[in-house]
Design a protein that fits this description.
By secondary structure, this protein is mostly helical. It has four helices and two strands; from the N terminus they run αββααα. The protein has a two-stranded antiparallel ribbon. Helix 2 packs across helix 4.
């Protein structure tokens, strides 16, 4: 699946979760899915918890996060350089 097709699975609508990026047709935010993965959940665990999701939805979240991070300047949260 092409990146453009994956990104079509993510929508931003001010009427849904105050405009946070979400998986199309859900109220599951990109941030929430990335947080699950950061906590150690893998694709199969997320899909078993949310059976309407597809692997491509999770890949879309990862791609969206990657593209978002690629276009920003960041300041470390702790005020120190992260090594």
């Amino acid at each position: 699946m092409q990146n453009e097709q994956l990104l079509e699975r993510i929508v931003i609508d001010p009427e849904i979760l105050t405009g946070k990026p979400v998986i199309k047709g859900t109220r599951l935010s990109v941030q929430y899915i990335i947080g699950l993965m950061a906590s150690g959940a893998d694709f199969s665990e997320i899909i078993s918890e949310y059976p309407k999701l597809m692997e491509e939805d999770i890949l879309a979240c990862l791609l969206f996060a990657s593209k978002t991070l690629d276009s920003n300047t960041f300041t470390p949260l702790s005020g120190q350089l992260i090594k």
